[in-house]
Amino acid sequence: MLLFETVREMGHEQILFCHGKNPDIRAIIAIHDTTLGPAMGATRLFPYLNEEAALKDALRLSRGMTYKAACANIPAGGGKAVIIANPENKTDEMLRAYGRFVNSLNGRFITGQDVNITPHDVRTISQETNFVVGVSEKSGGPAPITALGVFLGIKAAVEFRWQTQRLEGLKVAIQGVGNVGKNLCRHLHEQGMKLYVSDVNPVKTEELKKLFDVTVVNPDEIISLDVDIFAPCALGGILNSHTIPFLQAPIIAGAANNQLGNEQLHSQMLAKKGILYCPDYVINAGGLINVYNEMIGYDEEKAFKQVHNIYYTLLEIFHIAKQQGITTNDAAKRLAEDRILNTKHSKAKEIAA
Ligand SMILES: NC(=O)C1=CN([C@@H]2O[C@H](COP(=O)(O)OP(=O)(O)OC[C@H]3O[C@@H](n4cnc5c(N)ncnc54)[C@H](O)[C@@H]3O)[C@@H](O)[C@H]2O)C=CC1
Ligand SMILES: O=C(O)C(=O)Cc1c[nH]c2ccccc12
Catalytic residues per the record (predicted)? Predict the structure, then answer.
């Protein structure tokens, strides 16, 4: 991988490689763009196959955060961090060492919990830095409100696709029923939708069966089910050249970051199949909205109102894509890049004045 070539191509401002021997820690903090404000993005701990995979994840996730903030009208930039480790080997010492790296950026990067990072872990990190958000009891953590945003996205997609607001009886396949997926199931169950769920961790699906009437599906089969909506709520890259041919769902609306293996190629493939794709960084912005409001002083009514904008933003994106004959992913990208460019121009005028 040509490092600077890749960074230039994706438009990142800064990559911080964090290494420590005692405790052993390898982490990457990627700051994509801070035009709109300080880089915000949660931290993921994952046993990546190699350092290149970790770097690619950090680069794509952090760029996604830039577009996420722009589409959600949040004055924040895009950042993300990955800790290369097996969850079983996670220690408080490792997390505190990571917190010191975050602190060294002096507020340029503000983080919190993503995959394999718990609220306890964030509180451990916060012993070394104030630049973490998303654990206060007041905001309740990001996952439930992320799930609300995804639910609102499903409503928007159904309305656009079938000109109805009636969800009862529609079939939804949810891949991954962790923090976000299980909260999403609650919203969908309340609407009388039929739920098909999968998780590589059977404990999660067993827990869900005690709460809702769900059909548990083998993880290898969930994506090809004949349902109305496929909701990827696990890890990224699930929409690719191998999986898209098996998709039967006419709507894709899920929380996972980086759902598209290759943004251009696979968004085109979905469009050619007539599948309505909800761009992931638009539909899953509820978590960012929630933690941003926590950072500036949590006002639940204001946060919920902003999350409800996800419904309207997606409808706008669907209409732009239809009118201009472009993919929904390109429509979202244009919306975000226009907002970022406008801010760059405004800042330039202020400096020139
Ligand atoms: N937590 C939040 O507020 C936000 C989360 N996201 C994204 O949403 C996704 C889910 O996030 P969380 O629910 O917080 O994570 P989580 O780790 O709580 O849940 C993910 C679930 O997916 C399962 N899983 C992993 N690979 C799978 C596979 N191949 N098939 C089926 N299940 C699989 C895991 O066992 C786990 O139960 C992630 O991609 C995350 O980056 C995006 C925005 C905000
Ligand atoms: O939407 C994402 O992928 C996020 O990282 C949202 C999020 C969850 N917790 C946080 C803490 C600080 C900045 C963003 C987040």
Answer: 80 (proton donor/acceptor)
ipTM beyond cut 0.95: yes
Closest CA to 146 of 123, 114, 194, 189: 114
The pLDDT of residue 138 is above 60: no
Q: What is the mean pLDDT of the chain?
A: 95
pTM for the whole structure: 0.96
Mean pLDDT of 71-80: 98
What are the residues facing 15 on neighbouring strands? 30
In one-letter notation, the amino acid at residue 264 is Q
Domains of the chain: 3-57+76-125 (3.40.50.10860), 142-337 (3.40.50.720)
Q: Which of 177, 77, 178, 176 minimizes the C-alpha distance to 118?
A: 178
Catalytic residue among 56, 68, 80, 333: 80
CA of 163 to the centre of ligand 1 (A): 30
The annotated binding site is made up of 176-181
- pLDDT above 70: percentage of residues in the chain: 98
